[in-house]
Amino acid sequence: MVLSQRIHEAFKGTVERITGHRTVSAFKEKGVLSVSEFILAGDNLVSKCPTWSWESGEPSKRKSYLPPEKQYLITRNVPCLRRAASVEEEYEAAGGEVLLDNEDNDGWLATHGKPKDRSDVEENLPSMETLEIRHNETVRSIPSYFGGEDEEDIPDMADFEEADNVIETDAATLQSTYLVAQEPDDDNILRTRTYDVSITYDKYYQTPRVWLTGYDESRMLLQPELVLEDVSQDHAHKTVTIEDHPHLPGKHASVHPCRHGAVMKKIIDVLMSRGVEPEVDKYLFLFLKFVASVIPTIEYDYTMDFDLGSSST
Amino acid sequence: MAKEGSGSILQFAPFQSSVDEGFWHRFSSLKLNKFGIDDSPIAISGFFAPCSHPQVSNHLTLLAESLPSDSNEESSIPAFSRGNRNRCSVPGILYNTNTMESFHGLDKQGLLRAEAKKIWEDVHSGKVLEDSSVLSRFLLISFADLKKWSFHYWFAFPALVLDPPATLVDLRPASQWFTLEEAESVSAACNEWRNSSVTADVPFFLVSVGSDSRAAVRHLKDWETCQYDGQKLLFAFYDPCHLPNNPGWPLRNYLAFICARWNLKTVHFLCYRENRGFADLSLSLVGEALITISQGWREHQCVPNAVGWELNKGRKVPRCINLAKSMDPTRLAISAA
To answer: pLDDT tens across A186-243, in order?
Structure first.
């Protein structure tokens, strides 16, 4: 992790400890949520999209300002059939899409398009703990933790394959061994990864925050760096970072919440300008809709359909 | 969709395991602070839910909460985790060994048979009628190398083998099997079952459809009384599998149970599946299986054969995961510097 990032984390942690949590609603003014509004919006998400549920996480990591049984939201085993990187290539080949709003350089709502002339920007970006992913590189089958660079210590399991006491010949067992992707590509690599997507409450930014835990085709944990392949490439080098999850062990990829309030405010403004009065319990549906632009190929559930009118014409 | 159905052997898609990082973290902590070198088996729980996406199956998932709590003051599993529709619990047992040699030396067939015997006992004692989750059990063997933060493990999902295997008479999407009116009523009844915290995590149940097309979901123990009031009576279960032509693994022990308990020759079953958390009858399947077991198969004394060791990418080898990146204090210190 970059030093500046760590210093900021330490600062943020201190501020979170010494300041109280938000109690007055600033949902419409600032696009942020108070703790109780987060619970309200979470309850609504769980009831409308039942693949989501509240969880309590590690007892040692519980936040006292959240109810013990409602520490964060999670939906597991969400399919991701293709890599975001390859989707973008297709969009670009098709001419890309127009950013909804790029005036402040926060074109969050752009679906998958990527302006061609931005490649030079990347040099100036803060270096986060990211993996260089070249667009023209074809995505290969990904080794999970097993098969990393430190594997010399791990005995080769093939040596043990005689499996003398696992002799099973059974006509009633379907001989398909692991997940079959929807569309095997010409190189015959199975691309179905699955994700656990979780939403925590970030007390400092007063917004929800999304975390991704990935599993490969045989359901082995993905290194968080590889998760960045499933993140819109604009964001993989910018807003998606790999950090400690507030309620779970290990490092997980997360969409950094520093712009969440501003983006949500923008969405709310668009809604209000069309005479739609946004309700705070729908916050997470709007939020997940915009997160979909960051993780376009992860098919998590945000069933509620809102007319956001991505093109205002 | 009835797919060369008549007479073919009914094949089940194997259950698949998925282990959350939190499981290994808590297990390491328990091993270091509580178990030590004690390698007695530990009762654990796995979690699953019906398939909820047309393109991926659901797995049997192990989480930190699958294990007993690692802190002493914490009471075991808090009440609110029961009745969670996304976490139907499956009883399991963990055999952790202290060396690689003993890991490989475990009598895998023997362990599998022992779990199958538990299922068989519960089938005959009637325990399944009270708590149907005991029909699916799992077994996990492991060697946790805490010096290298690597975990070698192998799952088994013991399934009682019908001899000879059941044959498939018919299998099609539930939406085609039911009339439109029935399908709507079945969906509504199943959604209600899934949304009640009392029944949300009960994975085996009955669906009856009366002559008025009205569907009702019942507990297994109501089978005798359902006999008369429904025209169609289906043995339903939460199917983690997404495949259009195969039911998932839990149906195996279910059929064995139905056969041993009620001696039915023809079984109509419903593989209950969801899309985005709601009943999806075009994804769900209705099938008709024909069971012609050999003489003596139902005898309580002779436990049927069992299969179910999970394959790793098609091979009979254990899995291994290395978590040094998130567990090794030296590495954590370096990455934090």
So the answer is: 444 456 899 999 999 999 999 999 999 999 988 899 988 888 888 888 887 688 988 8
Cβ partners under 8 Å of residue A299, min gap 6: A78, A79, A80, A81, B53
pLDDT at A10: 75
Phi, psi of A18 (to 5 degrees): -95, -15
Residue B41: other Cβ atoms inside 10 A: 15
Asked if B143 contacts B277 with a C-beta cutoff of 8 angstroms, the reply is: no
**ipTM entry:** 0.90
Structure tokens at A245: 């999850």
CATH number (domain holding residue A265)? 3.30.1460
**Number of CB atoms found within 10 A of residue A219's CB:** 22
> Cβ of B33 under 8 Å from any chain A Cβ?
no
DSSP A7-50: HHHHHHHHHHHHSPPP-S--HHHHS---HHHHHHHHHHHHHHST
The verdict on residue A275 lying in a domain is yes
| Contact of B28 with B67, CB cutoff 8 Å | no
- Min CA distance, A220 vs chain B (Å)? 7
The answer to whether position A259 is within a domain reads: yes
Contact B50, B273 (CB under 8 A): yes
**Nearest Cβ partner for A146 among B55, B194, B321:** B321
- Domain total of chain A: 1
Q: Quote the domain boundaries for residue A284.
A: 1-87+189-294
Cis ω for the linkage preceding B164 (within 30 of 0): yes
